[in-house]
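Need Probable aminopeptidase NPEPL1 N-terminal domain-containing protein's 3D structure for a figure. Predict it.
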Amino acid sequence: MASVGLQFQASAGDADPQSRPLLLLGQLQHLHRVPWSHVRGKLQPRVTEELWQAALATLNPNPTDSCPLYLNCATVAALPSRVSRHNSPSAAHFITRLVRTCLPPGTHRCILMVCEQPEVFASACALARAFPLFTHRSGASRRTEKRTVMVEFFLVGQDNGPVEVSTLQVGV
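Structure prediction for Probable aminopeptidase NPEPL1 N-terminal domain-containing protein:
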């Protein structure tokens, strides 16, 4: 049985990173296009705008990179900007790996995925692959608490801004 409930929402709401850990994920050029006003509610009062800009400046995805923003409760991770011709432009295989390694611990967590409109479906599938329904690990079946991960997409490019609810319902 799955011990993680994955919820795709148009807006995950604002919360302190200490009460709801956060992973911000996307290609570096996309992360630079996210306005501070959109991530402010998810990061403040723990992370300031200057710290956010400094973290983006230190990221060097080769092929991926991550930087903790506040202890292990808020992390920003960058996907590679270029992929080989055999991989999708969304770099979906890197998304699954980054979520497994960089998602902060906790029972209620949030992922903010920054991407372009054509990459939403591939990115959502890659995020879901990070939380399998079945595992052979004996300790995983003994967990009684239900963990929830809220996923919010922020679109950059032509259709910029938060993704609409109707778009998320089509993918489900």
